[in-house]
Design brief:
By secondary structure, the chain is mainly β. It is 0% helix and 46% strand. The protein is built from no helices and 12 strands. A 7-stranded antiparallel β-sheet has the order 1-12-3-8-9-10-5, with no helix packed on it. A 5-stranded antiparallel β-sheet has the order 2-11-4-7-6, with no helix packed on it. A hairpin with a 2-residue loop joins strand 6 and strand 7. About 8% of the residues have low confidence.
Length: 168
């Protein structure tokens, strides 16, 4: 059988492009990235080697005041929970360069002021744990910043990189 034409269902209508918006080094008790460009449809956030001083749970929030009045719903592996506006990646152990911990967080329709923002998070939280989570960030404002912290209040970041990409 010879195929003379590729079925239209297989051909994408358009190809997405990614643009690097910022690169930030993690340091201190928390790292806040502000003024995220609103010129794209989706965000892809890569978090690599978040070195911490002691075992902890990585917490990610989209706005500094997320702890009140925000619904963040999440389902996924047992290491993934969401409460008080925080995406958490449990079982983050003290990380060295050999551990190679990394996360990918995709946030869809992040500039919407009416729709919930769907997100997916996946990655490796330690030498023996992985995470996959899907959820919604139900706030009627655009995502303009990202806050990364550790849940125990004492573990500090001593390295690691956050890269934020705009995706169309």
């Amino acid at each position: 059988m010879t195929i003379k034409q590729i079925p239209q269902a297989i051909v994408p209508a358009s190809v997405s492009s990614m643009t690097l918006l910022s690169t930030t080094t993690l340091s201190g008790l928390s790292t806040t990235i502000t003024n995220i460009s609103q010129a794209y449809t989706n965000l892809r956030i890569l978090i690599t080697n978040p070195f911490v001083s002691a075992a902890t749970t990585l917490q990610i929030s989209f706005d500094i005041d997320d702890t009140t009045g925000v619904q963040l719903r999440q389902g996924g592996g047992t290491a993934a929970i969401a409460s008080a506006g925080l995406i958490t990646a449990a079982n983050q152990t003290t990380v060295s360069t050999a551990t190679r911990v990394a996360y990918v967080l995709d946030v869809y329709d992040y500039t919407s002021i009416t729709n919930a923002k769907v997100y997916t998070l996946f990655g490796k939280t330690s030498a023996s744990n992985a995470i996959f989570a899907v959820g919604t960030y139900e706030r009627t404002s655009a995502v303009t910043q990202l806050v990364l912290a550790n849940n125990n209040g004492t573990s500090t970041f001593s390295g690691g990189t956050v890269r934020i990409y705009g995706v169309n």
